[in-house]
Fold this sequence. Notes:
The structure holds 3 protein chains of 3 kinds.
Chain A: E1 4-8, H1 24-34, E2 36-37, E3 45-50, E4 53-57, H2 66-70, E5 76-77, E6 86-87, H3 97-101, E7 108-109, E8 116-117, H4 127-131, E9 137-141, H5 142-166
Antiparallel strand pairs in A: 1-9, 3-4, 5-6, 7-8
Chain B: E1 11-16, E2 22-26, H1 29-35, H2 39-49, E3 63-66, E4 81-86, E5 93-98, H3 102-108, E6 113-117, E7 124-129, E8 132-137, H4 146-157, E9 163-166, H5 169-172, E10 180-182, E11 186-188, H6 193-199, E12 202-208, E13 213-214, H7 218-232, H8 236-244, H9 249-256, H10 261-264, H11 277-284, E14 285-289, E15 299-304, E16 312-315, H12 319-327, H13 334-347, H14 351-366, H15 385-397, H16 402-405, H17 409-415, E17 424-425, E18 428-429, H18 439-447, H19 467-474, H20 488-505, H21 509-512, H22 518-537, H23 543-563, H24 575-579, H25 594-608, H26 619-624
Parallel strand pairs in B: 1-6, 7-12
Antiparallel strand pairs in B: 1-2, 3-4, 3-6, 4-5, 7-8, 9-10, 9-12, 10-11, 14-15, 15-16, 17-18
Chain C: H1 4-14, E1 33-37, E2 40-44, H2 53-57, E3 63-66, E4 71-74, H3 84-88, E5 95-96, E6 103-104, H4 116-120, H5 135-147
Amino acid sequence: MAKQRVGYFEDREDPEAQCSRCRLCELICAFHHHQVGNPRRAKIKVIALGKGVDIPVVCLNCGDAPCMNICPTGALYRKERDGMVLVRSDVCIGCAMCVSVCPAGAITLDLVEGTAAKCDLCGGEPQCVAYCPAKVLRLTDAELVSGKRMRTFARSLVHAEEGRNSN
Amino acid sequence: MGIFQGGYAGKFLYVNLSDGSIHVKPLERDFALKYIGGRGFSARILYEELGAGVDPLSPDNILVFATGPLNGTPLPSASRLIVAAKSPMTGGIGDASSGGYWAPELKYAGFDAIILKGRSATPVYLWVENGKAALRSAEHIWGKRIDETSKVLKEEIGDEDVHICAIGPGGENLVRYACIVTDEEGVGGRTGMGAVMGSKNLKAIAVRGSQDVKIADPKRFQGVIDAYRETLKGEVWTETLRRLGTPNLVTHRQKLGIWGAKNFQSASIDGWEKISGEAFREKYLVKVMGCMGCMVRCRRYSAILDGSCPPFYTKGPEYETINALGAKPYITDPAVILRGHHLCDDCGIDEQSAGSAISMAMELYERRMLKKEDVDGEELVFGNGEALLRLLEKIVYRKGFGDLLAEGTRIMGERLHAEYYAIHVKGSEVDASDPRSMVTRALTYSVATRGSCHLRGFPYIDEFIKPEEGLKYFGTAAVSDVKALEGKGKLVAWSEDWITVANLMGLCIFAWYRSRTFSMLIKRGLELVTEAYVAATGLPMTQENLLRCGERVYNTEKLFNWREGMGREADYPPPRFFDEAMPDGADKGAHLDRGDYERLLDDYYTARGWDPVTGCPKPEKLEELGLNESDR
Amino acid sequence: MCLSCVLACQIKALGLLDPRDLVSGQKPPRRLSLTLVGGTPWTSLCRHCVQAPCVEACISGSMVRDEEASAVRHHLETCVGCGTCQLVCPFNAISRSAEKDSMAKCNLCPEESTPPCVGACRTGALVLGSRDHDAQGKKRKFAEELRGERNHG
């Protein structure tokens, strides 16, 4: 099974196909995991960059995960190769080393439990993906994303070539 | 551990700005069950703790920021805040509703409402975080516009996750219809709440919360979320809202010929396509946006970046923007409308009242009742967009003619001996549309407790209710005939109680209460809402009881107004609606018949259990609602 | 790896102000030390864990989590020096104090406005962390990257 994570897919040309900062992903994530209303306990967070740019940020499921590497107790683990990095709350000591080392800021300490909190893909059916009204969150294969970027990059190369020739 | 299993935070925050004291009062279970929240809390607190005859801009007025039990829960579109006080526009109960994220954040910070009394000697802002609050100096941000204020405060507090409700220079200068702005975007526009806040020298309230809002029965609550989502499938109204926002109503207004253009002298607009929802989407829309948890996403985010003016981004426009800064002053240049909108929002003045004031001045100018030297040398004719923009700025800073415009149309009418041309009810300008051809709408706008309001009741039900549904709910099939009078008094009364529930819960009216069919309206707007309340709070509630709470709150507001001397005579539309027929458009010639209106008003009062002569709630009705004789 | 932070901590522990007052043979308690791990400096320093093993292990209740300050405080007065905390700490952050029969651990220097170790660091490598370890800042940077807001090299 290929490595999975929740990815953000927007269409900048379509005003309806971009994150609209409704934060339903945050609400539904915290509710699903903790049965409360509290977006600060969500494992996904919408970052407002201004000028109409809002980006949901969530665990990228790194291959060589810094959080896993630095964890002193082995509380961070995968169930299978390529599986999502998960937390054993009973083993976690809340030292926050994973928090300080995550390059995306995607793992934090849960405000109530004090242990590491991160996306767990809701066991396979991510709720944020299901409930996003703009449908810009998708359970994605990491390979798929880079493939898309490769194609975009290749296309831009071709256009650059064409531009050069026409001069 | 609080007494509530969920929904409510269980605490009111009382702030005395005169002596700086702050204390917390618990929310009592009975109070919650009787008044639910939001407008219910604010109406009752204002009625109990504010005496009659208070000057709304004096330290004696009380300013309430109230949330509902569903704010902060993961329920879609439970995003709305109520800000209330005695209104400087009407002298009666005033309140404004604003969406976004502020109300949920206050719940996460552990409070159901903030009640502010007195006046601070120096400019301050209130900082609220996780059960605690403190007043801090706002000298360094006094004078700043909304965007700038938020920037400075977020830096000072050191956290971009802070949510801020602020006034701009409009509120500071006590523009009578100044508004409050949440998160630099959502405006609680009407009834002058910004002026009250400014009169207290309160610049802003910054909130940050990380506490849980508990849910009593999470499984049941999940069921409501999913059932709500189901109701949105195939709901054309919500698709239209997402695509075009509230500006989609422009087409409707033109089609029905119910614009209040040229200060209600024209019901049709030449060039209306240039300011339609489609036009704004095509030219200026950056992205659609949603308030907390919303699946509809009717908010617009627009920008003018073509170099025609200094570039800016702004939330909006809304339909009311186009109505107030387009239709009323007869401006069909969308850029002017958007620029005016941005100015109003960033400076904190209600664009509805501002546009209305300028439009009234335009009519007076064209009638030569105002001369050029009276209006700062402007050629103040309808359609003059540049004059509108200049005057909006002058209103904010009370400069020149702006000083009179800043008082609103009622006072303008008094000072200029031109009361006839002031189109308002109880001092609050008529918005939404021209109701001359629909007496039920005219009634709804005119009996609204906070002054002219198209969202206090829901008369639009008669546009889609089926005859058999009319018979079942309102005793007559005639209710489904838009032009008929029969049963409409009861319809308006019922719809007011029902719509009030949204304001009690913290729910967005568009996401929950608008519908194309009556059965869906009941299903979503009453059944599901009751279910959500029970699932969130664990408290007992039925649909009947909830409507009763709406009725109780509405009656409390009526008692408030009655105590201020507002009786039947205050529940009338402006004389122009009676005296002049629809001038043009699809309903040309239609007029509001005085006899019809009086009859309908009688019916409405009777349906409400109020004295038909005075408009005062009868003792039996008050007893029925658990409002004591001593409450009168 | 200049070890200025270690020096600053030790001077504080001995109650001195000037490093020149250090006398040979003095053995200040080791609350902060540095090693090289694969070429990178790694601190043996208390992380003030939320579910700290030392707090759980302490038999005299001398290790106490102070939520308000986000710190684990070691109360010298009640410490019996059993050494269990040293055994369970994953970061080797606790050591034995030679003079007193007790343990030694970073207490975040509550009596100082800035901990001396942070003050001594010339490069800004040692900082008093924000509560969320700048997770918000990192999210923001990542969001900017995703949107292509930032220029790449």
